[in-house]
């Protein structure tokens, strides 16, 4: 059993929501009673965690599996205790959202591969297609979650050796094109170095950690930022190259659509909290510019 009693507001759900890869992610569950169940693969082994908010600044955690002690030790990071919003002054239109969500934090899981693989799967396709691929691959190659979550259908992400050995036909059946499959395989082969990224960030800064991630062929600025937002707790990581983000930020902050260059100009005054601005846009519902074209069709890379 572990417990985090913070000296400031803490919202379990808002902080951890973006760790889930879709509503049917087998590594993440929310219950009607407010519990969050999450699986992970720590350096010491697989783990299932049950997290429950017991007060506005208080979260209690239980853990099962070989990685239980490590997971409970890392619970403060997961809950964003490292996340320092000192000096953050949100844009005028987000001040109310910031005031209403004082417990929103940027989490730090410390687990790079389990953030990197689904980010790679989300490259160049709609999120729903990537979520289906993620769930299929976990059902095929994941591990049954330890503790009571296992019989409930939860799974633990594969280890690096398993990711590196997935056969071509399973990537095909999961709807993952050869390019993304190669990127996951390449990342898995240097997983030990990638898992050092949290320490690299602490020692040498965020730019060095992002550069370490981008050493993998096929991992660019967007993918590195998506990992940094989850595994590294980087409150300044902006997902440059996202299909929708620049338009949404431009519309929210300026009332007009923007490209990546313009988005970075608009967010520049809020560094080192640029991702915090994006999260506030998401939770406030303002990150939705009006649609003026057809929806992007879901690509099926299994065809042909």
Automatic annotation (TrEMBL):
A biological process (GO) of this protein is: base-excision repair, AP site formation
Q: Name one GO cellular component term.
A: protein-DNA complex
Q: Note whether Zinc occurs among the keywords.
A: no
- InterPro entries per the UniProt record, alphabetical: Alkylbase_DNA_Glycosylase/TA, DNA_glycosylase
Q: Which UniProt keywords apply?
A: DNA damage, DNA repair
User: Example GO molecular function term?
Assistant: DNA-7-methylguanine glycosylase activity
Record Gene3D superfamilies? Hypothetical protein, domain 2
> This chain belongs to which protein, by name?
DNA-3-methyladenine glycosylase 2 family protein
What species is this protein from? Cellulosimicrobium arenosum
Upper lineage ranks? Bacteria, Bacillati, Actinomycetota, Actinomycetes, Micrococcales
């Amino acid at each position: 059993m572990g417990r985090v009693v913070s000296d400031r507001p803490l919202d379990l759900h808002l902080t951890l929501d973006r760790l889930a890869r879709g509503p049917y992610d087998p590594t993440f569950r929310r219950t009607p009673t407010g519990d969050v169940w999450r699986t992970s693969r720590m350096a010491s082994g697989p783990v299932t965690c049950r997290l429950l908010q017991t007060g506005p600044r208080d979260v209690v955690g239980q853990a099962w599996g070989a990685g239980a002690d490590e997971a409970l030790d890392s619970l403060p990071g997961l809950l964003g205790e490292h996340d320092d919003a000192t000096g953050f002054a949100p844009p005028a239109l987000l001040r109310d959202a910031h005031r209403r969500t004082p417990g929103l934090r940027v989490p730090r899981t410390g687990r790079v591969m389990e953030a990197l693989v689904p980010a790679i799967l989300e490259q160049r396709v709609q999120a729903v297609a990537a979520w289906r691929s993620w769930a299929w691959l976990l059902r095929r190659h994941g591990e049954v979650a330890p503790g009571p979550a296992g019989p409930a259908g939860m799974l633990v992400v594969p280890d690096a050796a398993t990711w590196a050995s997935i056969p071509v036909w399973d990537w095909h059946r999961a709807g993952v094109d050869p390019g993304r499959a190669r990127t996951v395989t390449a990342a898995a082969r240097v997983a030990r170095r990638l898992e050092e990224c949290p320490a690299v960030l602490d020692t040498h800064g965020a730019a060095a950690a992002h550069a370490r991630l981008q050493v993998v062929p096929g991992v660019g600025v967007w993918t590195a930022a998506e990992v940094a937002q989850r595994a590294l707790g980087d409150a300044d990581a902006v997902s440059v190259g996202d299909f929708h983000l620049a338009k949404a930020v431009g519309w929210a902050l300026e009332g007009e659509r923007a490209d990546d260059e313009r988005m970075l100009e608009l967010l520049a005054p809020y560094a080192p909290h640029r991702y915090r601005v994006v999260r506030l846009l998401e939770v406030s519902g303002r990150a939705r510019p009006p649609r003026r074209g057809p929806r992007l069709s879901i690509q099926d890379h299994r065809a042909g």
